[in-house]
Each structure stands twice: as structure tokens, then as C-alpha cells.
Amino acid sequence: MKKTLAIALIASLGHWALPAHSTPAETHDAAPVFPPAQRLYNKDGAYSHLTGIGRFKSNMQCTASLIDTRHRHEILDQPAYVLTSGHCVDSGQGKILTNTPITGHVEFNYFADTTDSTRQYALKQVHWSSMRGIDLAIVELDASLGDLMQAGIQPLLIAAPLKPGSDIVIVGAPQGEHLQLSSCRLESLRDIIEHPWIWPDSLKTRCRGLGQGSSGSPILDPRSNTLVGVVNTLNKASTSHAKCHRNAPCEISDNALHWQANVVYGPSTKRLQGCFVQGRLDLSPRQCRLFPTYAIDAPSPRLQQNYLGARPELDLKALSPTWNLKFSASTAFYRYKVDSRQSCASAAGYSMAMSTANAHINGPIGTDPGLHWLCLVGVESPEQKPTWGLLENALIVATELRDQQNQAPELVMLQGWGAAAGYRSAMVLFEPPAHERIFIKTGVLEHPDCDDPKDYEEIFPRSNHYGFVAENDQAGEKKICLYSQNIRGEPSKTASHFLKSRNESKGKDKDQDRLDKP
């Protein structure tokens, strides 16, 4: 972007100014069915325009595209850059990598019938890579663009976004495959949560045949063979507890989470427009909306948390958990706001600049059900004015509040592996203010009686907010009774569970993946 926003800092106001346990809802709309992926062959040169898409191997195996950075189609000695997904380079949420050495390589001309003539180039440097708001990476190769083009590798131009309903193709190399082409249409932009990551304004498609290794695949306008987006995630959820987490992204609509099967998502290349000047990545925030960058090291709050609803008949107000966000940053100061996701990229409403020394945001999340958002940016001084890049690099965290009323806390079943494969264990999550204290008792067969208040013992949380409940390394079932008290001292309902030994269980427990990132 060539013009920095002219934004006044209103120091006196401390703000910038700019003119029940809920399972994610499943959407079963009558989606169109597109053709299966087509394996590509290029010995006759039919797909020579796709030779610049190849297998990317570094931190993981992905797909990448050679970027056409020429100004007027001249071939210069400018660096050769490839575009891929940020998580193919580094999956950290808080940091944005710049000018970082990298090892690995890219193989071009990666067709099923050209295995004897692939072209391999070493990776040299990560110029920009992020998982914060956008899953994208720009990596320099250890060769010039001219070297690659003289070897017959054709780069791809970055194009303006397409409108919903436009035909697109995705070209990539899933694991164990060479390049294949999938065709479908773009749908409207979606905000995505793949906890702990949040992807605003993601492209949505229903192209088929993608899988592990497809990350980084270019989304192309087939009319011009230009880059409009990059694949970064698709749905593989198998249980309700997995949804909205890794490899099972959820869409955000009407302030709620919605999960759809067989959907592919990815960022557009909109933020890259204008970033290359005379064949090189321009680091100026005035020119490129990827900059400035800053690091924020912060834990992600749990995706779903409980609050206590108001009880007017007892003159009790609603009680909310707090953000409890302790973090560090590479900048001396930070600003934040608690608002909608869409407002994170707007300078309006951010707090006054505060020191990042011992930073801790601990205000209440809210007392309304649904999604709640926190936007956090790093600034070097209270006087630093916001640019689009600074705002679009904001750390965005979200949590969904739910009123479980007097429901018992959830039990998490875990199965031992390796030397511990002979037992299964159970843990429970402490979630103040709803589940402030937790009580259990255990026995065998139908004993004990969970409704009998005798013999309950209080358990206490460990450092990760989970409390150990029981384990079973013997034959037969172990019965677990539990209930909780909220911060008001009100008891929940009692709940009973049966913990089998692993030897009696067929395969992996369906709840095993529930323990995601405590």
C-alpha cells in the first residue's frame, strides 16, 4: 500500500482515531459437487504454465508457487521467491518471522510423468511468515528468478481478489502424489477459527482431492493463470470435540461457530499487492501491508468457557471468567480492545498505550453467550501511529461463553500408550466461575451411589487447569461420580461415568482428542 493512513492520535482519550455445552452447529446445505482432482502430465508441455508450482520440503511437506515479481516482464537477477502457507515454515501463533535462515528445498516441474526432469532449488531465507491472522509465508530460494525461468520454470503473477461465484482451480501435490488439479468455485469470504488460530476473511471453496501436503497450494484464476489465494486448511473432523480445532476449522456466523464438512479454506493474496518493487520484497509499511511486524508471546484462552447467568429472583448478577492473558512482546508498549473480530483492523477503540513489562489483561470476558474477541497490537511508543499492516498483524483471541447452569463438569478420558498402554485415566477441567471446586468418588460395578452425598472427596487442579480423577489398570470397569460447586457455592448436578481398562476397549477412545491445549 503506497500511502500510510494519516491517523491522528488523540492522547487525551487514549484511543486511536480512524475516519449449555454448545457443540458447533453443522451446516448441511445443498452444496454443489465438483469433479474429482485430475492428475497432471506435462511431457508434451500441456501444463508448462504450471511448472512453477512444486513440492516444498522444510519444516513439513507442502506445496509452493514461484512468484512473478517482474515489473514489465523483464528477466533480472532479482531473488526468486516462493509463496506457501506459514505453518509449512513455523506454526507458532505469536511470532512473525522475517529475515530468518531456512533449510530445505522446492522441486519444480513436479508432474507424474516428469520425475526424471524435476528441478530442485534450495531454500535460503524466510522473508515473511505468519500464522497470526493469516497463514502465509514468502521464502527466498538460493537462485535468481532469471535462473529459474531459463530452466523453464514459469512464475505466477499475484492478482486482485475474485468475486464469489468465480471459477477457480487449485493445483497442489498431496502427500504421496505429484501435481493434481481441482476445479470448483469461490464462495463468499468467511472468518475462520481453527483453535488457537483465527483466520479472518478466508476464501472458501469445495474443491476435491486435497489432503496432507496440499497446504500452500495456489488458488488460481483459470482465465489468467494468476494467484488469488493459498490453501491453508480443510475439514477432517470426526468427532464433535475435534471441531473448531486443528484440521477441523469452523466458520463464524451470527456470533456463533458453524462447522461444515468437505470445505477448503485459505487466505487471499490481497495483502501482497504492492509488496514487490523492482523485483524485491519492500519492507516499508507504506508500500506493503505485511509490515511492520512484532512478536507477541501469549497463551490462547480455551475456545469455550462457562459463565454464570444472572438470577434476578435471588438478586444475583451474572459472573464472567476473565481473560487472564499474560504475555510478552517485542515492542515496548501495547494497545488492545475487546470488540468484534471485524474491528481489530480498525484503529478506533484501542486502549491507550501500556507497557509490555509484566503485561496482563485480566478484565471480564463478558456475560452474554456467544463469541467474545480481544485484539492486541504491539507499538514502539505511545506516539506510534497505526498503519494497515500494524493493525492487520494484530493478535486476535476469541472464546465462546456458554451458560451451563448446573451441569456437571466434563470428564476427559485418556488412554495410555507405550509402556503405559495397559491403563486408562480420567481428568476433569476446572472452569471458574462455573466449576470452581470439584468433588469425586469412585468404586466398582454399580457402586457407589452418585446421588448419595457421602464419601465425596475434593480434588484440586494442576498447573494446566485439569485435575486428575482416576485411572484403571485392572480388568473391569471403575465407576466415577462427580459434581462441582460454582463460585457462589451452588452445587451442580451429579454425573456418573464408567472407566474401562484399555484391554477391554476396542481402539482409541472417542473422547481422547478432547484434551487439546489446556
TrEMBL record:
<dbReference type="InterPro" id="IPR009003">
    <property type="entry name" value="Peptidase_S1_PA"/>
</dbReference>
<feature type="region of interest" description="Disordered">
    <location>
        <begin position="492"/>
        <end position="518"/>
    </location>
</feature>
<dbReference type="InterPro" id="IPR043504">
    <property type="entry name" value="Peptidase_S1_PA_chymotrypsin"/>
</dbReference>
<keyword id="KW-0732">Signal</keyword>
<dbReference type="Pfam" id="PF13365">
    <property type="entry name" value="Trypsin_2"/>
</dbReference>
<protein>
    <submittedName>
        <fullName>Trypsin-like peptidase domain-containing protein</fullName>
    </submittedName>
</protein>
<feature type="compositionally biased region" description="Basic and acidic residues">
    <location>
        <begin position="501"/>
        <end position="518"/>
    </location>
</feature>
<feature type="signal peptide">
    <location>
        <begin position="1"/>
        <end position="22"/>
    </location>
</feature>
